Amino acid sequence: LFITINSNTFESSEVRFFDARHDISSGTPDLKLIEPRTLGLEYYVDHHDDNFYILTNADGARNFKLVRVKVENVGKRYWETILTVKETEKIEDVEIFRNFAVIFAKREGLPVILCYNLWTSEIHQIELPIKYCTISPGINNNYDTDTVRFTYSSPFTHESIYDYDMKLRNLKSMTVHPMQDFDSNLYTCHRVHAKSSDGTKIPITLLHKKSLPLNHDNPLLVRSYGAYGISTEPEFQLEHFPILERGWVIALAHVRGGSEMGFSWYDQGRMMQKKNSFTDLISVVEHLIDAGYTDPSRVSTIGTSAGGLLMGTAFIMRP
Question: How far apart are the C-alpha atoms of 221 and 272, rounded to whole Å?
Answer without folding.
Answer: 29
